[in-house]
Every structure is written in structure tokens, then in C-alpha cells.
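step 4 of 6: structure.
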Amino acid sequence: MDLKLKVWRQKNSKEKGKIVNYDAKGVSPDMSFLEMLDVVNEELIVKGDDPIAFEHDCREGICGSCNIMINGEAHGPLPGVTTCQLHMRSFKDGDTIYLEPWRAKAFPVIKDLVVDRSAFDRVIQSGGFVSINTGGAPDANALPIPKKDADVAMDAATCIGCGACVASCKNASAMLFVSAKVSHLALLPQGQVEKKERVKNMVNAMDKEGFGNCTNQYECEAACPKDIKRDFIRVLNKEFILS
Amino acid sequence: MSLDSKIPSGPLEKKWDDYKSHIKLVNPANKRKYTIIVIGTGLAGGSASATLAELGYNVKTFCFQDSPRRAHSIAAQGGINAAKNYQNDGDSVYRLFYDTIKGGDFRAREANVYRLAQVSANIIDQCVAQGVPFAREYGGHLDNRSFGGAQVSRTFYAKGQTGQQLLLGAYSSLSRQIGLGNVKMYPRTEMVDLVVIDGHAKGVIIRDLVTGKISVHAGDAVVLASGGYGNVFYLSTNAKGSNVTATFRAYKKGAFFANPCYTQIHPTCIPVSGDHQSKLTLMSESLRNDGRIWVPKKQGDTRNPADIPESERDYYLERKYPSYGNLCPRDIASRSAKEVCDAGFGVGPGGQGVYLDFSSAIQRLGEHTIAERYGNLFQMYEQITGENPYKVPMRIYPAVHYTMGGLWVDYNLMSNLPGLFVIGEANFSDHGANRLGASALMQGLADGYFVLPYTIGNYLAEVGFGKTPSVDHAEFKKAETDVNEQTNKLLSIKGKRTVDSFHKELGKLMWNNCGMARDEKSLKEALTKIPQIREEFWKNVNVPGSGTELNQSLEKAGRVADFLEFGELLCLDALTREESCGGHFRTEHQMEDGEAKRDDNKFCHATAWEWKGSGTKPVEHREHLEFENIKLATRSYK
């Protein structure tokens, strides 16, 4: 199939960007979205143009590197799917596709579709962990955890930190991301000791980075490629009030 | 030069404890006077950085991704082994040790593997304490499952995301240390050279991937945790950014590269769909617990799998290996799949696939249980292929997955270059010629949390503090100049072919001539052709853009330049090893029934190669492997 691409090109964080048109011809439905971009880039290089910069690594839907707004939707049209796992069979011949970077003050554009998501790392560094040193941990089965709790903690821990929740929120709120980590640890006995400090520190760090607030429209949940549930935002709010 | 493995004396089960009791220690107040450089933030590099910082050392850590959380360990799905014997099914440290040695086809070092089995239990304790949400039984205790190459259930898992959860555990420990200021983290950077002063590794040259700026960093020791080199085949299950550069450039600075021909082909990947393919997707090996592998008994049978009756299906693994069946080790499962496909029994487009069928498991356990165990994998499969594996069997084919070779290290995990430590997949030591499932995560974390923090202290105490060289030292300047020259050269060629086109050409050659099966002819052919591709690369590659911006083509070009030299070393190693063992299958060396034929008289050693300059044959060194506790036996899974 033949497609028209409208791609956000921006040389670096200082210069202005703009949409540039490209043709993607002879696209196979078996290609992943990123493979389609690979093919376009190969042609651009041969023509002497600068290839489109985009972020990716594992291409298995788990590392969280890939991030493209596709026709205004983070990771494209399918629910529960990352950009790298989106295949061209989801599009039809003749389609026009808009490709843009994540848009958020806290995620400045580095080049084209690549943005800086280090704000997420700093939020985790403020307290998204259990303070345990290596060695001397008690036997793992000395701390039984009800399966139900472990399963819910696991659902929260599934977050891959891609930032789709921020990109799809009109306030660029990071509440889903932060709530996932807070919930994961708050649901487990290991996370109890630092529970109050953790949530306060993480919420402060989140505000400091310039992420907005939640207005309960749940675009984040709709965009999340790992189906992180909005219920965790409720847990975050509860933990924050209790702290 | 002799290779001294520095294995401590004494009985196997006491070596590590005795060693730990007698090594030199660094006084806590002096630890902050040392700087340690760590390359990579996967399970090995992340856990090592966190632990070394906890101990009080200054740590500088580098990764090429935008965040340390994205290292490729995150993609591992199935699980992590540990000799906990929670299931009371007869597991023990010795049995995990034995399975690992046997699984590696008796080409690993006994003392290292025993230590790995010993510390495996601590890893689970550590991760649970961090809050890693492992799967649980209803009683609240940890759940286990079995994995390829083992007859006990010793694998701990977190849905199909074990690598992710373990990496996030290490990342959270690392983040804590970054927050405390004990680790200085440099994301979006790559190591482009190692600096060796007076024979000791004393620093690295780093390229900032966003600005192109080259910086020099001096330290008292360098730790390489940069993963494996599977991307030399272009198509593999490795992340696109995974590369050989850090280890290969250390090799060029004098570190020996051991056993590069040991590459693991993973049996359960989604088959290739076309020329556009950029990478292969692995379906967790844990699927083999409940999935049954088969092909039609009739060649070229294109019927819908549901229409093929039981009597016309060949469950070839269950037939050939009745006691292990679908859980036989990866090399055996992969080769068997290739054999049936080569013989014309393969399924799917191009006939390069076999069925992995869950219908009997779904009948026995219900769809709900299967969804609980493998739900996300089934989803992923459907997304990629457009087929629903609850209704039709999956199609799988082997793909390059893991590399057992790597830089040579001694018992301390130190390379032959003092001060250069190599951990995780980047070293060669623990898996021999094949890696068992759920053992890569185990080794990464064992090295980073529990082994290196001891052994590096021993080295640092010997060297003493206050010896960190100045970055003005001539060796730093020279390395920096070399790096800049290479960048300028790559940008100035302005040829006609893209970097990827060279990588694909090399990859195809490697897969065809040095893949699942190799022989003298195919290897000699590859050794003739690789220098030709390399020559063309340096004349005709087109790297657009400049060296002072985010330039993904330039990043790739440097890595592909290294693969083009490394591929030759891999083939040379495969040609030299005139036997079949584990992931290295030489068709000249097989039993009558097609099983791998090892030659213990001539090849019971690790081969470590020493760089002698471009275009010059590297020098071969051998470390003879002593088996004092295990009798070398023909590996049988029948």
C-alpha cells in the first residue's frame, strides 16, 4: 500500500519545527510501524536527505523507548499496543498519517520525534524505591504476600515509563506514571516503611518537573500501551492524603 | 601469555566462602577515594552500580538509552533460576550447578558456575526485598515453574515480564543511589574507547549521543556490562541498539575475546515475514511448558492445523527426547526445528516454521489458566502475526538470541587487563557453549549484586587509592584523537550505500555461513567475504549529517564498523573449534543420529583471542578447563 506521511521535523531543541510531507510507497501490512519508517529513512539517506530521528530499541513492546503521536494518538490507534508493536495492517492504502513527538513541557524535543523523558527518572530518584542495601535480605518466603495483592502490585509494576500518559493528557499530567509506582510499592509489605515519604517526595518531584494535574478525563488510561488502570490514581490520591 | 583463571584452591563448595574470607578489603573511609566506571545499566551494570555505590565507592555509569531503565535485560520474559528448592522436588545448589555445566556442554568453568548456583538463592531474597512482584501461590509464597534443560521447578517469574521486573528492581536501587549523589548517571552516551595506562584499565572515552561531544573519564577500575553481540547477525532478538563496541574496543586495547563462536539460537521466535524485517521477536521459552511442538508427518502439508489429525502430527521433540520432550535445551530444540524444516516439513509461508500448540493445555487447564500464565505473550503474537494463538497454534522458528562468548575473565571477573572487569553477558565465563533458560538473568544479577562487589575490592585494595590518573595523560589524548579521526572519516566517505545495507549484508552472510550449522567451507567463505564487505564499507558508506548533533546513522556506523571486524573473529573461532558443542554445531562433527559430537581430548578449553592489529590474524590462547567434580559425559536429554 502507498501512504502519505506528515512528519514533525525539528533539527534540535532550539530551532523551530514544522510538518514535512513524505511518501511511503509499497508498504507491506506485515511491517511494523517502525519498519515502515526504516524503509522511508533508507530512501531519504540514499537521496542525501537527513533521516527522521525516532526513538526505539527492543521493538518488542517492553523497553518503553518508542514514542510517536500517530494521528494525534500516543502509540497510534490500537489499545494496549506500543508504536513498535503496531503493524501496518492497521492502516489502509492511501491513508495520510501524522507523526509527531510527545508534546509536554516536561518532555522537551531533542530532534524530530525524539524527546527528553529524563523527568521520569528524576521522579523515581526522589523516592520510587525500597531503601534496601544489597545482601542480608531475609529469605524470600519469610514474607508471604497474598496472591491478590501481589497480582495487583504486578499490574501496577507493568508500567514501561514510555510517557504516553503524559503525551495524551491535556495537562501533561504524570499522575498515571507516578500512581503506578506508588501503588506497586504501597500494595506490598516491603513498601510500607517509606510509604508516606515516598508519595510526598514523588508528588513534589512530579510538580517540580512541570507535569500538570489530573482532571479525571482518563486519556492516560486510554493511551497506555500496558493497560495501567486509572484506579491507581485513586490509590495515589489516597496515599497522598494519608501522608 | 598464560591465562591464569585464579580459581581458589580447596573443595568446590568452599571455594567462594573461603575466598571471601581471605580477600583484601578496602577501609570504608577509603572507598570514596576510588572511582569506578560502569558501562551499561542492564541487570549486571545496574545492580553493580547500585551495589558499588552502596558500599561507598564513587560510581560513574553510562548507558546509550535515554534512561537506565531501558537496558535490554528488560525484554527477558520467562524467569530467573535459583536453587531454593521451595518445591521440595529435589533441587539443590549442586543440581543447579550440574544442570548448568551439562547444559553448557561442559565448556564452562566449574568454580564460576558453582558460585553462580550458590548465590542464586540470595538473588531472589534481594529482589523480593526490593519489591519485585514475583508470581505467588494462594498461600502467599513464591510460585515456581520449570524451564528448558531442567527437571525441577526452580524458575521464579513475574508473569511474562520477569526481565522487566528484575531490571526495574535494579533500576530502583540505582535510582536511589543516583538520588543520593553516589552514582553519577550519564544516559544517551556510549563508550567508544578504553584507556589503558601501564597495563591497567584506567578510563574510557565517551561520546555524548545528543551533542556528539567527546569526553574523557578516568577511574581506578572499569566495569563493562555492555551485553552481548548477537546483532552481528543483523536479525536477532536483541534490541536494535545492542552492540559489540565496548567489548570489541577493549579487545583492541588488549583484552582477550573468548569463545565468540558460542552464539545461542533460541527456538521459540516468531518466523521472519519479509525483507523489511528489522528484528525478530522472541516468544518466551516458558511457552514450552504447556505448548507442544509439532509438524505434519507429510511433507508440504498445507492443511489448516486443526484439520490435521493427531495420527498425522509429528511431535518430534517428544519422540526424540522422551524424558525432556518439549523442555530439552535450546540448542537441541533449535536444531531439531531446522532439521524438520530443511527436510520439507515446515509450516507457514516459506516453510520456515513449526507449530507450538496449546490446544491440549487449554483443554486440560482451561483458557483462563493459560491466559494467566502467558496472556501478554499471546497478545503480542496476535499483534505481530494477525493470528489468535488461543484458536490456532503459534508458528515459531529459531533466531539468534544470546551470546555465550565474551571477554575472557578470571574467577574475579577481571579480564587479562588488570582493572578491567567484565560482567553479565559481556563476559564468557558461566554458560559454556550454551545457556539454559532463565540463567541469563541469574548471571547478570549474581555478578552485579554478589560477585563483583567483593572481587573488585580485592583489586582496588591491592592497587591502592590516590592512583587515579589525570585525564591529561597522553593515553587519554591519544584515544580521544583516534575516536575523532574515526568519526571524521565515517562522515567524509559520502558513498552510495546506507549503514543498514552493510549491516544486513554482513548479517545474512553470518546467518547462512556461521548460523545454526557451520562447516569448514562455509566458514572459509565467510572469512573471504567479510574483509570484502568491510573494504567496501570504508569506501562506499553514506553517513549523513554531522558529528555535533543527534545522528543515529553515525551511531550505527561506528557499531557496524566494529561488527564488520568482529564477525571475522567469530568465524575464525568457529573454524578453529573443530568439534560440535552447545550452540556451536559443525556439520563435520556429528553423531550418526545427528547429535553434536564433542571432542574433549582436543577442545576441552576456552579459546581466548588476542588482537594483533587490523588485517593480522589474532593470536589464540587456551584456558584448559578442569573438571574435578563432574565427569565429562555425552550430553543426553533422551
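step 5 of 6: annotate
 - The helical segments of chain A are 33-47, 118-125, 147-157, 164-168, 175-186, 195-208, 219-223, 231-242.
 - Chain A touches chain B through 80 residues (CB under 8 Å).
step 6 of 6: archive
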